[in-house]
Design a protein that fits this description.
Blueprint lengths: L2 H33 L16 H13 L6 E3 L2 E2 L3 E2 L3 H4 L2 H9 L2 H7 L2 H6 L7 H9 L3
Parallel strand pairs: 1-3
Antiparallel strand pairs: 1-2
Helix pairs in contact: 2-7, 4-5
Bound molecules: heme C (HEC).
Heme C binds next to helix 3, helix 4, helix 6 and helix 7.
Length: 136
């Protein structure tokens, strides 16, 4: 190999190496978005905190127990004491106390408390509280 041909070979090899490396770099840049988990599509619902059947049972209990005689939800029922968003205002213990007319709630409810206390025996009480809890 002559000195010139060796220099030419070296130049060609360097150029090939540069091309190969930039191709690799480009490929890695194009691939990298694939390694990032795809964001959930907007239509995908968030993981349900409580199951829909239980919420439906709670809603049915709310209707059966005539809560709407004094309360409204989403514009249905007596508008004087709306329960929209009650799950954000009250924790589970307070939801229970107000539903059953117990403790501090009993004092504020007066005569209505005795009526509410009858709800304590209802078999769907827990589902009812789940329903109220998810009214955000
Ligand atoms: C005879 C009327 C009456 C009935 C029936 C009734 N409530 Fe109430 N309830 C009230 C009154 C009055 C209050 C206190 C006023 C208020 O905070 O809106 C109240 C308060 C509440 C609260 C607290 C509301 C808040 O925003 O702090 C919850 C929860 C509640 N009731 C649940 C129920 C459920 C569930 C039922 C049915 C099982 C029911 N109530 C039936 C009269 C009633």
């Amino acid at each position: 190999m002559t000195r010139e041909s060796r220099a030419e070979w070296l130049a060609a090899a360097t150029a090939a190496l540069v091309i190969a490396l930039s191709a690799l770099f480009a490929a890695l840049r194009n691939l990298s978005p694939l390694s990032v988990p795809a964001p959930q599509s907007a239509a995908a619902p968030p993981a349900p905190a409580v199951d829909a059947a239980r919420i439906a049972a709670g809603r049915a209990a709310f209707e059966r127990m005539n809560c709407a005689m004094c309360h409204s939800i989403a514009g249905r029922g007596n508008p004087s004491h709306p329960l929209d968003g009650v799950g954000s205002r009250l924790d589970r213990a307070l939801l229970r106390a107000w539903t059953l007319g117990e403790g501090e709630a009993a004092a504020q409810l007066g005569g209505i408390a005795a009526m509410k206390q009858r709800n304590a025996a209802d078999p769907e009480l827990d589902a009812l509280l789940d329903y109220l809890q998810q009214l955000r």
